Amino acid sequence: MIEHLEDINKAFESKVRLGIMSVLMVNDEIDFNSLKELLGVTDGNLASHTRALESLEYIVVKKQFVGRKPRTTFARTGKGEKAFREHLQALESFLNKVER
């Protein structure tokens, strides 16, 4: 049975990272505060998970100023979208094998 889990992407084992990618799959872009509120996580927790996804090139982070206020936004990359879709397919495949 364990061999069916080989295609599961470890980057998405964290529920926060899973949440980040899920949100970005249905939104082209989201700002830090909106994502933090949506997921119910702390600043530091969100920052560490977004850094991890950014280092894998699954998301891009854009920092800018709007007026005098800093604004950080996140967007998925093509690589991130592909990896997340493959992860979901692997989960679905695993669940189908378990049902039998």
From TrEMBL:
Record keyword DNA-binding present: yes
Domain spans labelled Winged helix DNA-binding: 16-95
Keywords for the protein's UniProt record, in alphabetical order: DNA-binding
SUPFAM superfamilies: Winged helix' DNA-binding domain
Keyword DNA-binding listed: yes
Gene3D superfamilies listed in its UniProt record: Winged helix-like DNA-binding domain superfamily/Winged helix DNA-binding domain
Transmembrane segments: none
GO terms, molecular function: DNA binding
Protein name per Swiss-Prot or TrEMBL: Winged helix DNA-binding domain
Species, as recorded: Proteiniphilum saccharofermentans
